[in-house]
Automatic annotation (TrEMBL):
Polar residues compositional bias, start-end: 185-195
UniProt protein name: NAD(P)H-dependent oxidoreductase subunit E
UniProt keyword annotations, A-Z: 2Fe-2S, Iron, Iron-sulfur, Metal-binding
Organism: Sphingomonas qilianensis
Pfam families in alphabetical order: 2Fe-2S_thioredx (PF01257)
Cofactor(s) demanded: [2Fe-2S] cluster
Family classification: Belongs to the complex I 24 kDa subunit family.
KW Aminoacyl-tRNA synthetase (keyword) present: no
């Protein structure tokens, strides 16, 4: 399912990212993050600092971001840990990109609920838009990855694009999202058929007396 990331040449990577350092704003965020942990527990900051580093790389490259080895080494120095300890974290979580991606990282869930719900149609829409699994489109806009469960099974099939989930997809709705992104628009995340809070596709079927027409809970939950 997962395609091997195409990591750039090491010399090229080090030439581009060997002098990586926090921006002034991200240095302030780093200080705040490290302040959450007792002395000697800085390793616990691996996840938020790797995320911050990936976002800074993304801002500098106008993409969704990735983690070059020199950037991981930088984070390791910040928290006083061996490089391998931080590299283990970065390679364990699929939220971290180990190779360059496009402006929009399209992660299509192919696990059973999404597969049964029609993820093949979602992948077909991606393919017909020129997306290829494990690759970035020539214009640098889209990188396509097939991933394991993203936890939105009730609204399957779904994709995660950068920080947003798009749910209840089919071929046409997927195509519309990709076209909107390519045009510089910001499609509304969440269910593409207007469902709220993963309710049944036909609307609530239980406790109807407790739900008004706008699906807002009444009583002690209001």
């Amino acid at each position: 399912m997962a395609e091997a990331p195409q990591i750039p040449d090491e010399a090229e990577t080090r030439a581009r990212w060997g002098a990586f350092a926090w921006t002034e704003e991200n240095q302030k965020k780093t200080n705040e993050i490290l302040g959450r942990y007792p002395k000697g527990r800085e390793q616990s900051a691996s996840l938020p600092l790797l995320d911050l580093a990936q976002r800074q790389v993304g801002a500098e490259t106008q993409t969704q971001g990735w983690l070059p080895v020199p950037v991981i080494e930088f984070v390791a120095r910040v928290i006083g840990q061996p490089y391998m300890r931080v590299y283990e974290v970065a390679t364990f979580y699929t939220m971290f990109n180990m190779a360059p991606v496009g402006r929009y990282h399209v992660q299509v869930c192919g696990t059973t609920p999404c597969l049964l719900g029609g993820s093949d149609d979602v992948l077909a829409a991606c393919k017909n838009r020129g997306l290829v699994k494990g690759a970035t489109t020539p214009d640098g806009l889209f990188t396509l990855t097939e991933v394991e469960c993203l936890g939105t099974c009730a609204n399957a099939p779904m994709v995660q694009i950068n920080d947003d989930n798009f749910e209840d997809l089919d071929y046409d709705r997927t195509t519309a999202i990709l076209e909107a992104l390519a045009a510089g628009q910001s499609p509304t995340p969440g269910s593409t058929i207007g469902r709220k809070s993963s309710e049944p596709a036909g609307g609530p079927v239980a406790l109807k007396a407790m739900v008004d027409e706008n699906h807002d809970y009444r009583g002690e939950w209001a």
